[in-house]
Amino acid sequence: MPARVIALGQAAAGDDGVAFAVLERLRARGVPPGVELLRAAEDFALVPLLETPATVVIVDAVLQNPPGRVLELTPEDLASAGHRAVSTHGVGICQAIELARTLTPAQSAASIRIVAVTISRPRRYVQRLSPAVAAAVPAAVERVLALVGG
Amino acid sequence: MTAKTRNIRVDYLARVEGEGALHVKIRGDKVTDVQLRIFEPPRFFEALLRGRAFTEAPDITARICGICPIAYQMSAVHAMEDALSVRVDGQLRALRRLLYCGEWIESHALHVYMLHAPDFLGYPDAIRMAKDHREAVQRGLQLKKAGNDVVTLLGGREIHPISVRVGGFYRVPTCAELRPLAERLQWARDAALETVRWVGGFSFPDFEYDYEFVALCHPDEYPFNEGRIRSSHGLDTTAREYDTHFIEHHVQHSNALHSTIRGGGAYCVGPLARYALNFERLSPLAKDAARAAGLAASCRNPFKSIIVRAVEMLWACDEALRIIGAYEPPQLACVEVQPRAAIGYACTEAPRGLLYHRYRLDADGTIVDAKIVPPTSQNQKMIEDDLTRFVAARLDLAHEQLTLQCEQAIRNYDPCISCATHFLTLRVDRQ
């Protein structure tokens, strides 16, 4: 089925780059036809990427203990359950989705799911994942594939 | 709370970059204290740079900010080139200006449309504004994307670019790669012109001040990377003399150092300063648009900075198209650079204003020490001074309206607290 997997994060902030590790694992493993694998450099860049008839799966890190759990959320879950996405500019995934749905209600993806990996707050410049978060990557890959028909 | 004692407290000010707070104390009919409290822990970039190779400075300092990494890269490479007596000229110089155009377009579009315009149109944020102003918000996002496209093509990626190096670039674009960018920039120039008209129609509080504006001034160009440091009150100096004329102070309520002019006080850097000191170097299109939007050659109402940013965005589109039109790929992507023991200085014009870097290198090019003064640090005291004057003249305003206007007055400066050290909370305490 047509689907768009979008990874968000910051590779230089350790575990905040977990979505990119998930994306690379998906790329290496191969995805079903019609599935795009994309990165969004920042949350505003997410807005035009949500303008698609395809199913959208956003992969990101969320601040929650313990680190290394894989969650499947709807945008509404993310907004209401107190999961906090890592954002430096006061605009997060929820706001980007709301903005896309406000601007182009008819064209925005009808189905948006978020596969989130829980992490602790990044504290320093490090370009690798912690063992607990790295161990969660295979499970996150399986969750994404289940959502895109893989 | 009594007739003479009022407490106003807002715990969260949105639509700024980074984390901080504002506390205004009012006793009776006097504003007794204004503190822009930046409590973001220091990030120690200057210490991080010590012991690193001079070639690493552009990539390390770009990490200071996700919105204006080019500014940090440009100040870093020019300071290193100053230390090592290297001159980057011709098309490489022009490409650096083109890269800076991209950053100004994306940064100004973000602030004008997503952060500042909701203040003038009475919305709490851009999402609520988008319900009634869909076309404008889409235009803002597309303008931001046009700027990001420039940075992506020249810098290798849109955030924290990787192709800038001391002496030039790791890779330069082909003419064929620039062609589609020119098409997008032609659209962006029209959109920027529409932006100037749009924001020129907003209502602005009646508030002006004789600011000491400080900006780079170049004889032929609206400034990016070169020029003398001049002020509206007569200062005329160079980056090498920056530390002689500007003093940094630690204040207890901020983790970002304040700056003042030696023997003077607060000063203002950023779009208003650049515009006032360089109006004649704007393109005819940008000048005409500014006049049509009601601006004179200098603007001393900080609330109208939204118009000036739109004018600068228009100029940046114009300048980018001019550079692309004259582009011939250089033979080499960079000039050779040999390390030596030296000190290098540079100021460039970040979207938010003058950005100073100084590096001392040892003989093999290792950084011995570094000093970085971001524009938001320099504007902190002026923001506090603005608030003192602004609140004093509006004590009769209703609590909510005054609080909203205080937040708006802070956003006039598009503060990047992440750069200065992250998020703003506003508290107005009336006693």
Q: Care to describe what's here?
A:
- The complex is a heterodimer of chains A (150) and B (431).
- In chain A, strand 1, helix 1 and strand 2 form a beta-alpha-beta unit.
- Chain A has one domain (3-148): HybD-like (Rossmann fold).
- In chain A, helix 1 (18-29) crosses helix 6 and helix 2 (43-49) packs parallel to helix 4.
- Chain A is α/β, with parallel strands linked by helices and 150 residues long.
- Chain A is built from six helices and six strands.
- In chain A, strands 1, 2, 3, 4, 5 and 6 form a six-stranded mixed beta sheet that branches.
- The model of chain A has no long low-confidence stretch (mean pLDDT 89).
- Helices cover 35% and strands 23% of the residues of chain A.
- Chain A has helices at 18-29, 43-49, 75-80, 93-103, 131-134, 137-148, and strands at residues 3-8, 35-40, 55-63, 70-73, 84-85, 112-119.
- Chain B is α+β, with helices and mostly antiparallel strands.
- Chain B has helices at 45-49, 57-62, 69-83, 90-121, 126-132, 134-155, 175-200, 242-245, 271-278, 284-292, 305-325, 375-392, 399-411, 417-420; strands at residues 8-9, 19-27, 30-37, 164-165, 168-169, 214-217, 228-231, 236-237, 246-249, 258-261, 342-350, 353-361, 367-373, 423-430.
- Chain B folds into two domains: 8-41 and 396-430, no CATH class; 45-378, Cytochrome-c3 Hydrogenase, chain B, CATH 1.10.645.10.
- In chain B, strands 1-14-2-3 form a four-stranded mixed beta sheet, covered by helices on one side. In chain B, strands 6-7-8 form a three-stranded antiparallel beta sheet, covered by helices on one side.
- Mean pLDDT of chain B is 90; it is low at 7-14 and 421-426.
- At the A-B interface, helix 2 and helix 4 of A face helix 5 and helix 6 of B.
Order of H and E elements of chain A: EHEHEEHEHEHH
Low-pLDDT stretches of chain A: none
CATH hierarchy, class of the largest domain in chain B: Mainly Alpha
Give the uncertain stretches of chain B in residue-range form: 7-14, 421-426
**Overall average pLDDT of chain B:** 90
Q: Give helix % range of chain A.
A: 25-40%
Radius of gyration of chain A: 14 Å
Distance between the termini of chain B: 8 Å
Helix content of chain B: 40-55%
- Count of runs of 4 or more consecutive helical residues of chain B: 14
Please give the CATH architecture of the largest domain in chain B. Answer: Orthogonal Bundle
CATH topology of the largest domain in chain B: Cytochrome-c3 Hydrogenase, chain B
Order of helices and strands of chain B: EEEHHHHHHEEHEEEHEEHHHEEEHHHE
* CATH fold-level topology of chain A: Rossmann fold
